[in-house]
Write a sequence for this structure.
């Protein structure tokens, strides 16, 4: 029985690995095409620009994908993303408020590094204080916290719209450049800082990743199987908050990216294990973003931001997921 | 030995477990019985550190559950709750493999595989091991979850209403397996039961609870008695003995009283 069972398990594992490699190959092709297609003029300069953009793509896919996988496992829900608590609208509000109050010439707007640190800090502060509520009581009511976040998000959005109404039309156009996610605005030194931050978070959360499979079974099974639940879960939540904040501050809001990539990985791999799920999600994110950038920059020639495409595809997919769930 | 010492647990204004002191003896089946809301499941959750207690302490082999390392305790005590809905799509074998997590943290070794095989065989799941859990009937799924706990290979096995939603055949099957765990493998089983006759036929000891307190604790002989059960459940029981096995009749209380 052992040999038959192990053989079946081995076949399954091989199939999953094969699919991961296939996804990696497709993603690599996208990346290469993005880097070398249509290079005109000074290829050294162009390539270094494109490498920075690709760095931002990799980092965003890693941070957003990792955060969403962990978030969905902790909430046992496949149609939620960490951004549900209004991080995206807070980011938009922050951009609008900075331009409105300090003006587009202020350092908080023009200095890329200061802008990144301020944005990431504020987002972390907000998300952190919201999720702190999770641990204050032993009831651990995730959905209550998410609902508060959702309402806060709507408030931020209304405030941002209000400011955009009364702001100077020229300044409004300036804020628009940052309220849509963009990979082309990312500066190298900001990217380096963000990469460092993501790297530190990855080191911090790595020892907890092996618990994700068991955590997906639910709190009671996880405790039964020896997971030091409060400690591990707190650590994972911290990682979710930091990764989401860094990704949003780096490129701007892409609400549906995480949702889209995790579910593509789920469907494509059909494997519950988080080791493969994480890899698949990050690959899907890189493939999605680099494919989207290829389409936008090489085919549509910059006529719309890549986040619009990702959100369009993601929104449609989200509707499909909700409809599928409701039919069960 | 698992000892609860003056443990209390409140949920808001209601006291689920009220100053309970009880000792679970080794190598026995102990059943927790009592009416709905008596605090049986809560007591089981406190004993297995699933829920933190408000007062008192639980000692596993003389050491407080709060001072045990969680992985170490997971190799000593296993707990299975009554609702087992999963958001993952797993095969029976995947699920049973999870029982080895306290030993190998997700990377199953050869020895782990052998434990998984044994547990599957023990629960008679050989033919079903590659099926997905959502393809199984309620009884089969329950057996799969118990197989996971068997693979966990702990000295203490705590089960919250393992017979819930099972028909008579499967209930008997599961109680027989639990009996074998105790008699053949020397384990200690504590379970919450609603069917008083299963408690009477398969347990060694019975703990009877009411309003959050332990009202009676002893061997089957001492607990399955008209006066004791009347106190616990506030209803009439007619107790008959067949081949040294005590059976309670309570389905038609008016007949029981008339006799």
């Amino acid at each position: 029985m052992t040999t038959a069972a192990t053989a079946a398990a081995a076949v399954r594992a091989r199939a999953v690995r094969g699919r991961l490699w296939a996804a990696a190959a497709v993603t690599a092709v996208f990346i290469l095409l993005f880097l070398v297609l249509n290079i005109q003029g000074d290829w050294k300069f162009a390539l270094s620009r494109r490498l920075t953009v690709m760095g931002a793509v990799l980092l965003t896919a890693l941070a957003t994908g990792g955060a969403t996988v962990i978030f969905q496992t902790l909430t046992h829900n496949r149609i939620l993303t960490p951004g549900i608590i209004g991080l995206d609208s807070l980011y938009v509000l922050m951009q609008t408020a900075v331009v409105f109050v300090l003006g587009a010439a202020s350092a908080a707007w023009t200095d890329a590094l200061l802008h990144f640190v301020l944005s990431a800090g504020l987002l972390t502060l907000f998300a952190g204080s919201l999720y702190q509520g999770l641990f204050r009581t032993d009831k651990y009511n995730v959905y209550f916290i998410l609902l508060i976040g959702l309402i806060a998000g709507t408030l931020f959005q209304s405030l941002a719209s209000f400011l955009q109404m009364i702001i100077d039309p020229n300044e409004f156009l300036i804020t628009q450049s940052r309220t849509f996610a963009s990979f082309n605005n990312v500066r190298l030194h900001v990217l380096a800082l963000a990469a460092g931050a993501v790297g530190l978070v990855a080191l911090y959360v790595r020892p907890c990743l092996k618990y994700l499979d068991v955590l997906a079974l639910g709190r009671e099974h996880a405790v039964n199987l020896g997971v030091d639940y409060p400690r591990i879960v707190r650590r994972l939540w911290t990682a979710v908050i930091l990764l989401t904040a860094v990704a949003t501050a780096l490129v701007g809001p892409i609400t549906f990216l995480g949702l889209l990539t995790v579910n593509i990985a789920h469907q494509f791999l059909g494997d519950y294990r988080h080791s493969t799920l994480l890899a698949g999600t990050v690959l899907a994110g890189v493939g999605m973003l680099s494919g989207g950038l290829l389409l936008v920059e090489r085919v549509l020639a910059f006529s719309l931001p890549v986040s619009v495409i990702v959100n369009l595809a993601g929104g449609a997919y989200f509707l499909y997921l909700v409809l599928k769930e409701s039919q069960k | 030995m698992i000892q609860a010492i003056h443990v209390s647990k409140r949920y808001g204004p209601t006291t689920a477990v009220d100053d309970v002191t009880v000792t679970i003896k080794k190598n026995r089946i102990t059943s927790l019985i009592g009416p709905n809301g008596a605090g049986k499941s809560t007591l089981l959750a406190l004993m297995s550190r699933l829920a933190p207690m408000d007062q008192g302490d639980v000692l596993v082999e003389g050491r407080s559950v709060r001072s045990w390392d969680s992985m170490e305790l997971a190799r000593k005590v296993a707990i299975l709750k009554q609702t087992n809905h999963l958001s993952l799509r797993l095969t029976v074998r995947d699920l049973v493999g999870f029982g080895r997590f306290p030993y190998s943290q997700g990377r199953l070794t050869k020895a782990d595989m052998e434990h998984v095989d044994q547990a599957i065989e023990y629960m008679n799941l050989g033919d079903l091991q590659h099926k997905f859990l959502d393809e199984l009937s309620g009884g089969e799924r329950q057996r799969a979850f118990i197989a996971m706990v068997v693979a966990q290979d702990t000295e203490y096995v705590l089960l919250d209403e393992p017979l819930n939603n099972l028909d008579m055949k499967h209930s008997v099957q599961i109680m027989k397996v639990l009996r074998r765990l105790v008699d053949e493998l020397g384990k200690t089983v504590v379970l919450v039961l609603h069917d008083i006759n299963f408690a009477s036929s398969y347990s060694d000891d019975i703990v009877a609870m009411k309003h959050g307190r332990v009202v009676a604790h002893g061997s089957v002989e001492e607990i399955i008695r008209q006066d004791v059960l009347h106190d616990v459940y506030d209803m009439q029981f007619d107790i008959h003995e067949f081949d040294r096995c005590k059976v309670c009749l309570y389905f038609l209380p008016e007949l029981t009283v008339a006799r």
Observations:
- Chain A touches chain B through 25 residues (CB under 8 Å).
- Residues 18-327 of chain A form a domain with the ABC transporter involved in vitamin B12 uptake, BtuC fold (CATH 1.10.3470.10).
- Residues 197 and 272 of chain A are 28 Å apart (CA to CA).
- The two ends of chain A are 35 Å apart (CA to CA).
